[in-house]
Design goal:
single chain, 83 residues, mainly alpha, 4 helices, 76% helix, elongated
């Protein structure tokens, strides 16, 4: 998905991505997805160590994942640069 978005934006650098709304939203989506992955990895380590998951972190993980889905939905309604 990231490679496809990068290709759609036609970016050769960060400045090219930030030049379009689509590119900025793509960066936000990727950043949020990385946060969800990091939180999930942390919870998995806790579970592997025999500890219970942190309930507050689980709630935040779900909320941020919902933001990723919202960004995805928003991007489907946007026209990528050069289209």
């Amino acid at each position: 998905g990231v490679a496809s978005g990068w290709r759609r934006v036609g970016a050769s650098g960060l400045a090219d991505i930030l030049a379009s709304d689509y590119g900025r939203l793509l960066l936000v989506k990727v950043a949020l997805a990385l946060v969800v992955l990091a939180m999930g990895a942390t919870q998995r380590r806790r579970l592997s160590a025999g500890k219970a998951p942190v309930q507050r972190a689980v709630v935040w993980e779900v909320l941020i994942a919902a933001l990723v889905l919202g960004a995805t939905a928003w991007m489907t309604g946007m026209e990528p640069p050069g289209a």
